[in-house]
Amino acid sequence: MKKKQTFSPEKRDRTILLLALLLMVSIVPVGAISPAMDLNVTDISPNSGAGGDLFANEPNTITATVKNEGITDIGAFTVRFDVAGTEYTADVDSLAADTSTAVMITDATLRTGGDSVIVTVTADTDGQVEETSEPYNSLTTTLTVYNNGYKGKRWTDGDDQDTVASYDGHYNVTWSAGNTAYNNKLWTEQTYNWSAEDLPVPEGATVVNARLYQAWTYNKMGTDPTFTMSFNGDVVQPAENYQDIKGFGSYSFPYGMYVYDVTAAFDTAGNVMTITPEADNDYGIYGAYLVVVYEDPETAPRAIWLNEEFDMIYSYTTYSVNDTEATVFAPFTGVVTDEVEKATAVTILGGAGDENKSAFIFNGQEYEGFWTDYLRDPQVGFSVYDVTDALTDGDNEAAMQSRMVENKGDNMYAMTTILMAQSADVDLNVTAITPNSAAGNDLFANEPNTVSATVKNNGTTDAGAFTVIIDVAGTQYTEEVSGLAAHASTTVTVADPSIRTGGDSVTVTATADTAVAVEESDETNNALTKTLTVYNNGYKGKRWTDGDDQDTVASYDGHYNVTWSAGNTAYNNKLWTEQTYNWSAEDLPVPEGATVVNARLYQAWTYNKMGTDPTFTMSFNGDVVQPAENYQDIKGFGSYSFPYGMYVYDVTAAFDTTGNVMTITPEADNDYGIYGAYLVVVYEDPETAPRAIWLNEEFDMIYSYTTYSVNDTEATVFAPFTGVVKDGVEKATAVTILGGAGDENKSAFIFNGQEYEGFWTDYLRDPQVGFSVYDVTDALTDGDNEAAMQSRMVENKGDNMYAMTTILVVETPDTTLQANFTATPSYGTAPLTVRFTDLSVGATTWAWDFENDGIIDATTQNVSHTYGTVGHYSVNLTVSDGNDYDTKIRPEYISVTAPYSDDSGDDDAVPASITSRNTGTLLTSQEGKTLRTTTVIAKDGIASLNIGINTYALDSSDNPLSEVTITPQADLSGKSPGTTFSFTGKAYECTPSGAQFSPAITMTFSFTEEEWNALSGKTPSLWYFDKAGNKWEEIPVTINAAERTVTAQITHFSLFALFASATKEISPESTKQPSDIPIPTQAPVNTPEPSVTPGSETTQPTPTATPGFGVLLGGFGLLLTALATRIRKP
């Protein structure tokens, strides 16, 4: 029998190590073999991305696609294009393996629609590239030249929109689409009407030409439409058939228009048409329209030209059509301009509804396009242009153009153009007087104003030049008018520089043709008088409306600081109900030992339609308070002018540094809104740096807006600060508080002329107020300073906002001698070496007493000291500046515990528990699970926290806690859970606020015998303060009289306080449970492991790299490390 072979663990591990090394060597990648090169022309495309065909009467681009079929990169080579015998070349710098490149040339030859063009493209014509296969370098194709129907017919050998009828004499023309409408394919018989109002023909006039136009679209029938047209009961036949078609590529179907002469059948009282389709029609129809020319001896003399054609145009890069080509021309010949007073062009188009994507041009003079006249129902439009200034003797030309915007213009259909030249009854009349037209329409105080007069020519003949005089309160202004067409109006505007006062009345008279230059049919109606009122414009800063700047209401100089917050307040619209809001201690932090010298509560209200000031009731910390200030502003002119304002309450006496509550109760049926309230608190603190503080207030509504006659300069609120001393200033900060200032880039802050970003980034959506803080140190000056809040106009308007409070804080260095220091670390095991860092102000000598035993241990500024004995140590630092002394004592500042003992021998082991004073550091896993027990004892030694191992300790955002703090609170400002409870003097703030624990941690109160005896006859109870609900909640406790302790299990941090109530004697050990308050719990947070779906991604190898090699190598490195460790420690 063969003996079984065995290996020692050392030999087995060395064998595995050797095999791993061999496997690593075996996976080293081998270099790829260089492959060959092969060029191939794979495609020839005319006008690529711009129609994809060759087009007549224009240059064309031709693009060839060349591919490197090989797997080796290619250097420079040449590509030759032969286009019907004309050669072009293009150079290619290089082409990577297995990639293609597009090479394009422009063929300038102008060709005719229908031509065939042979194109051959050859790559590497100069043999610059050594290829494995040279015969496939060329490609030949035959291309057809097309007329591009999206261009005007002048570019496709078609007709312009030519004249079909003209008239000269006492003629006029009218046009209308009646109630016609667009119909899509498979449309059914339709009947439409034109009323006498649609096509007004004066009594006594004679209709000389009535033409009915019916356009059709996208005809897929294969033959022209054969619908039946009936007009006023008679079937009529087309007199003209105009057509157009795309003419290339896909979706190329005919469009067109039939024109019917219905002169004999036209009825001035009204007309009816019925259109009946063939069966299964496969085209759409536009709304029909009528153009009617009539002769009337009572009308002004006119020459009229009527032009027709159906021409489809579409400026579109993708279809190789630019604006110039997408133009339809309507020529007019034999024009005589002598005595012409007015020339009018009328264009009728289908589909021309895209804004800014069309233009009308007359003799080269450009006018706005057709979109504003587009009618949605018939999908046609009638655009009328005054072309008097552009009219010339002889030949004239109108042009309808599709105008490209971001790659494409309007796809539209030019059908009819009319030109009227009217030759020379004038009646001038002032119809309106308007101050600051389109800019408020009222006269405004403290600024120049404009006054406009509207003059109308009620006659049928155009008026020549005349003057208009506008008399404003006795001051006359004269303006010239070059002429005014019949039935037309013009507006004359003058600037009145007089600075007036709000409430003034101003009489204005406007008179037309004061020099009697125009012979009129009625000279008695040329003047109009109106009395105007001067208003203060509330959208301007109050400096422009005889109001107040945002002036200083309080100032401070010394060891002061200021804090502000909106708490959890929110904006409420009209018909709001009673609301209660809170400010926590964290919202308005006031240091322990500081004294609040001014606490001001601000409540703004908006758009008050009550007729009287708001009378809501304001309660602060349970006390009803009255406004100390009432600031207001109002638009002051025009419509929608209602008051806005702000009440300010002095709540200094009622302010509570541990938290504050306000309740606001409205009157019935309130009809105004309220902004979120905010508090500004100034406190004096000997520990803070010296500061000068100015607090400025006002409610000023500003809105830079052309329509309201307000510019940026006027839409500015100023906050002046006087008596500023700049010498020795370390930092100057300005704080602005505004309502509604949330529009990006539409505001600015200015301090002494230096501009800063506006207020939008600090805007709070809930209260709709914002607190913006600016460093104005560089801009600060001695004496008078000025802050400015400005609404900044962008595209006609700025932000409509409300300036309420501005604070200036000027900080100077504290030169008063003051001892201060820190130590790192402040706790640990003996021996503990602590580094003490001096933070004193003004000191020149230092005396350190590390045990506070009266013995000076060191005299250098910064020093280290080693504590060898377990205990809690108070530290004393006394400093001097050569004249005075100051001492800083930190009681029981250093905590030294016994060294941790671990029999495992592992130098890196974590202590199973640690005890700290005031603040404890937690050691947790990534999930927030504690890795040791931590005990934290409050400074007074009474309260402590015990956080056991394997406890989930998370902050309010569910992140692991790093440290916890328990801080005694000396005063609860008289708050208690009820009248039967008295405060024991033991309250503790546990932070960070919102911290949560699962399972619960232990909070213990340990009393001296004297303190415990003081509770005789009373039962202690522990409560925490619910800040959100503004109330106390009781927590179950265990009372151990023998050990003089009160113990509770807590699951979150808050303010905890021990109260006492009269009851029976305390038993040696009892547990007190609240009857109706459940113990809050916090479930542990489970973090799921990341998952990967097998087969969800596949990576292909390339010739030059092995994917995953680095990962494999890293994995083997870990394996080798593990093996080496095992070999070293069997």
TrEMBL record:
Compositional bias ranges of the Polar residues kind: 1083-1105
Gene3D superfamilies according to UniProt: Immunoglobulins
Annotated ranges, domain PKD: 844-881
Region ranges (Disordered): 1067-1107
Superkingdom field: Archaea
Protein name stated in the entry: DUF3344 domain-containing protein
Source organism per UniProt: Methanogenium organophilum
Upper lineage: Archaea, Methanobacteriati, Methanobacteriota, Stenosarchaea group, Methanomicrobia
